[in-house]
Every structure is written in structure tokens, then in C-alpha cells.
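Lab notebook, bench 4. Continuing the backlog of folding jobs that were queued last week. Each job is logged with the same field layout so the records can be merged later without manual cleanup. Today's entry covers TonB-dependent receptor, a 823-residue chain. Filled in by technician R.K.

JOB TYPE: sequence-to-structure
TARGET: TonB-dependent receptor
LENGTH: 823
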Amino acid sequence: MNESYRTDMTAESLKLLKMPRKLPEKSLILAALMAANTLVSAHAAGTAASPRAAAKTTRTVKLKKIDKKYQKLLVGEKNIASAMSVISHAQIKAASSAASIYSLLKLTPSVNEYQQNIGPSMPTLTVRGVRMSQLAQTLDGIPMTSLLSGGEGALNSYGIGSLVSTGQVSGIHVYPGVAPPDRSGFATIGGTINYQTKQPTDKRYADLFTRIGSFSTNVYGIQINSGIIPHSGGLKLLARYSQTETAGYIQHTPARYANLLFSAVKPYDDGLSKVFATLLYNRGNGYESDYGGYPVALQQKYGLYYNVPLSQTSTRQFNHYLTAIVGDSSYINRHVIASARVFYIHKSSKFEAQTNPAVIGFNYPYQNNYYTPIVYDGYLGGPGAAHHDFSYNPVQTFGSYIAGEAAGINYTNSDTIGFVPKVNFFLPHNDISLGGLIAEETSHSSQYVYGTLNMPQINGYNAYEYGLRGHRVVYSGYLQDKINLLNDTLHIEPGVTLTGVSSSNYIPQNVYATPDHAYTLGNYDKTILPYLGVSYDVTKNVIAYASYGKGARFAPVGDYTLGGAGSTTTAPGPETVNAYEAGLRYISKRLYANFDGFLQDERGAFSFVTLPAENLSLYTNVGKLQYKGLEASGKYLLTRHLALAGNVSYTQANYKNSYFAADTASSVQYGYVLAGDPLADVPNWLGNLSLTYERGNFTGQLLGSYTGTMIGTNAPPLPPAVSAASGIPDLGGWTTPDSAVRFGNYFLMNLSAAYKIPIHEDHLKWLKVTLNVDNLLNRHYYVHYDQIYKLLLAKPAPGASPFYVAYPGMPRFIELGLEGRFT
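JOB STATUS: finished
OUTPUT FIELD FOLLOWS
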């Protein structure tokens, strides 16, 4: 559900949102918020208490219920001046194993998402039309997006698996547009998504779980919660491991995922402060689509989910993700709370693609694999082309250029370290937040070519590129105030964020290096991002709000190029957005409702022009886009057991000028867009409607979701070659948004149910049986639809005709699960 409440709220929690603000009480609550429950449990368990602890125990006990209420208020902020959506732990647990952290976001307004397989596989995401690579994502307050690219979702960049999995999170907050500075992540021009990891609880238990589903999908795992360890001062530990395997709903796309979580919390200062640590390790290994779609003609001939055998062509990723967070939250006094986090993120990826030229060669009528070297790289390009230090000869080794460049392997890894401090000041009429981010990311990459995937990998022999190194240091700080006036009915929230980035890109001697020697490209850039939000309690139930915010995303370091002098770095500036929104929310005992409108003007969108004669790409800030729309959401408690919830959103996203752009949400395609063109893959209408029933040990939900019509891209007639002097790229293979190419407009229904069977025998407390049916009506639909040319050496084949490719959505998926709790 949208805005300021938990989606699993009860009538009682609705009352809490009406709770008046009392400053002395609030300060006490914030102090107790650190570890009130831990302190009470530790005291009951016989943990030795200091005189100071004994003096505070009574106060903490009294605040226990208030603490729980304030927890809910923190999750859903009544007076926040920006739109906000919350995905609760109950919603996450109710999802099937076909879901991912990205597909769950589709439960909220203005979010469209699709992926290529069961679980986290090549997600494509838009929020109010803004694509995934332009969104900020945070994990427990740290940036989980790449500092080097300014976002996630780049083509073939860690597309299988994810930094955090559905089983590792307890909740997700979605802030579309530009959020207040203390909630906004690094480098966003369209929204922030914040994931909260699971934390240990006071009571000890162990859960064993398994699921079996369609398409040979199976899940198994274990979760162990230590509870408060006796005589440890309140220390609690949580460990969880799960593994998922699937054959995939598209033929020949098997995948496997493994996820590990470890979390520890240790209170101190008599339970008012705490130190904590979280460790995540996730792994993804799977095959993906060659282009985000398959030839429609072959789907019509062989079936909607047809894919050629892996022996003919394949694209595969092996990805590893490691995240470590250590932090402290300290109660200084009733007016000041300070916190800090230190984090480390390591990612590594092996990406491989191969084509069997004996089966699928140049005469094959459709594009078979966009990622084998002969398609885009073709380093020789025919006899006589420059070799640089590339001594591998495909003709001598495999008999032809085609056979010798039929396979490629890319290796990429990155390391990020950072520090996130924050101080909150609670004054009589002000709540001030002061925080920042200091972080550094370094990446390395290499690429090799051969005739098979079983290849030697020798620098100077068959390495297209080796030793590329990107580096970026981020210095960011924000100051935010929330001023409460007119008897605490008017809330003014000004803020500002200052960010500077120092970036470099090392280009060693390799096929792509121009000039023919190693060099480093460096740049420093900065932004000042203001924010102003206002909310007013019109009545005790009605809140009006409005906000303005500016966001910015820095250019990927790969977009830095050599200037004309041969040593000057040419770098695009940040792309920016000015975001405006206004709305009303209504909160009563049984009803929550929200309505808002938004306008987001993007300027300086990244563009590139390739000059074939110079073998040079230039990156600039020329694009202009506009996103505007309306959002409505609500939840009504029909009875104490039955709840009706839903949301609907309308988005209009258009280019405002003509320029050369990546013109699909996945950034796979590029072409010349015209002013007024709508954005491809962005539906105008989105909606969700759910009916949830909870009684005793049974929970069930019927969820319907609607995705409106979207437009795809079209491949216009091939233009003649254009001289580089004109500054216009050779547009071979380009595409453009085309309103005549339409797809989508589908309605899906999902069913979920769970029944908990009390056991209370020996150490087994209960068994829970679950049922999930996604796409209950087994609708057949497309999530991606485009017209393309077959490419050879990055150009359409002579005399080629365009054809349509599409990616189908998942058919009916049925899954049964069993979970047992041991104490």
C-alpha cells in the first residue's frame, strides 16, 4: 500500500497514526527505541543490572507498548511531505519463490517490473517511468547501487541474483520522486528504494522450510534465531540460509540461487544503545535471454516459451555478492541520538556467451545472440584491420573469423567501502537530521575472445581488454530540519544535500585503447540539491502535503573519453531532475486513503554519439524528459478479519527534445528519439486490488494487478552511411519509440494462503502449510515487444529486413510449501 502506514496494519495501528505528538514523551520513546524490548527480556532472564539499569527498568517497562506503537509510526510517517509506499514483512512472506525484491515493488503505485525467469533474473524496473539505472537503492541505510555507474540495471551488469534476497528482508520502503534528504540515497533522479534486513528477536527458535513449484522449482533452507543469549548482556544472533533451483519458464534457462544472512545485535548503556553487524552472501548462476526477447515468428511456430537449445547458443552469468555492515546507535541524551555504519560490498561476475556457427551462422534468419564477439566486436572486421597487441588469429586456429570469434568471456569485480554517520537532534519545535556518506568503489574488468568457451585467457593473446579499472570516491553530506508550528499542525521540512565525486577510469593498452597506449581519465564533479516539504493537518484525519526536490545522477566513469588534445578528459555532467508533488491523505480508525499528483522534469539526460571513422564515442548531456501523473491508494478494514486494499496510478512520460538515446527501459536498444515521443516500456495505467482474510491460524489473499498498454520500439528503414564530419552517428541498427507498436494491457490474479497447525510436541511448536498460485487464470501476455534488425559486426546484415522480438510473461505458477518451527 501507499504512503504512511504499514500494509499489514490493524485497526489499532490505524489509531496510532492519530496519536498526538508530545515532545518529552517522544524523546523518551526514541531513547527506548534502541533496545527497550531487549532490556526487559534480559532483566527477566536474570542478566545482572547496574544501578542505572535498575533505575531505568521501570521506565522501559512502561514504554514497552509505546515503543511498539512508535515503531509503526516510524514505518509509516503521518506527516511526511512526500509520497511513500511500504511493503511489509507479511507481504514479502506471502510471495512465491518466483518473486524477487524487484517484482515485489510492483505492489506499489506507478511501478512496472518484469524479469526473465523465476527469482532475480535480469530485472527491468521503472518508477513513474524512471528506469532502474536512475534510481537509488539502499540497504539498512547504506548505498547498494554502484557508485561508478550511479545506479543499477546496466545491461548484463550483475543481472542474475541480487545483493539482497526476499528471504533476507523484513520490509521495503519506496519513495518515488525525490525524498527528503535523510531518506534519499546516492544518485537518484526518480526515486529511492530502501530495504531493511531481518534482525534477531528476543525469543529463540529454528525454522526449517521447503517449497516445490512449477518448472522444476524447489526451495529449501533453515533460519535460526538465538534469542537473547543468557549472561551475554542481551546479545542476539540470527542466521539464515536458503537455496533455490529452477528450470525456468522459458525453455533452456535454468538458474540456481543461494542466499546466506547473519545478523547480530548487542545492546549496551543499559539497553538504550546498541552495536550491530550484518553479513550477506548471495550467489546467482543462470542462463538469460539473448536480447530480452525471442523472434515472434518462432514463438508462433513452436510455442510462446520457445528457446533454441543451449548447444546452439547461450548467454550465462555467474555472480557473487558479499555485503558486510557494522554499526552503532547511541543514546546521548533525550535530545540527541547518534549512529554510524561502516560497510563493505564485494561483487564479482563471470559473463559468457557462445554461438555454434555450424548451426546458427550468418545465414540464420534471426538474431541468435547479441553478446558473442562476432556480433559487436569482430576485432578484425575483415583482413587487414589493426591488431594492436592482439596476437590470436581466429583463421589459423578455427578456420574462419566467424568460427574463431564464436565465444566470449567477461570478468568484472568491484569493491566498495564506506562510512555513513548520522545525528538526530530533537528540540522543542525542531527535529534536525545531520548525516553523510564517504565511500569509495573500485572495479576491474577483462574480456577474452575465442572459438569456444573452453578458451585460454592470455593478456596480449586473446584479450579484447584487460586491466580496465574504474575508481570513484564520494563525499556527501546533508542537513535537514522538520519545524513543527501552529500547535504541531504545520510541519515545514527544509533540507539540502551537497555531494562531490572524484572519478577516474584507467584504460590499459588493448584493442579499444585510442591512442595505442595506456592512459587514465579523471574528473571531479559536484552538486547542490535542495529540498522543501510542507504538510498541514487540516483536521485530525486529513493531512495535506506538498514538496519540491532536486535530484542528480553522476555520469558512469565508462562515459569519460579523451578530449581533442589527447590528454583532456571529456566527461558529461550530472543528469538532474526537478520534482514537484502534492497530495492529501486521510487516516481514520478503519480507513486509510491517499491521493497525489507529481511532475518531474529531467534535464541533461545522458546521450552518446559514435563516430565510426574515428572509432570514438562521445558522451554528452542533451536529453530532456518529463514525467507527470496521478496516484491513489487506500485500505479499508471491512471487518476485523477482512481488509480491502488497492492502488491505481496514471503516468505520462515523454521525451521533450530530439536526441540520440538508450530508448528502452532495459537500456538494451538505442536510437534517435523525437520530441513528444512517449517512453517505451512505460504503461500509462497501473493498478492493484487485494482482498485479505485473517482469522485464527489461517491467512489468505487474492491479489489482482493490471498493467496498461505500453509502446515498443520500431526499426526504421536503414539510412545511408553518414559522414563522421556531420556529427551524426551511423544509425545502422537503431530503433525509435513507435506508438504503432503496442503491447501489454493485461490483468493477472495471484492467490496465496497459509495455515499454521499448532503442534506443541517436544520442541516442534507448529507446522505451516502454504499455497501460492501466480497468474491464477494462466493469462498469456508479453512484457517486452520490439522490432529489430539482425546485427553483424554491429551493423544490420546487407539487405536485412526487421522482425519482431518479444518476451512473454510467466504462465501459471503453482507452489506448495511446508515450514516448521522448533523451540
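OBSERVATION: Residues 51-62 form the longest helix (12 residues).
SIGNED: R.K.
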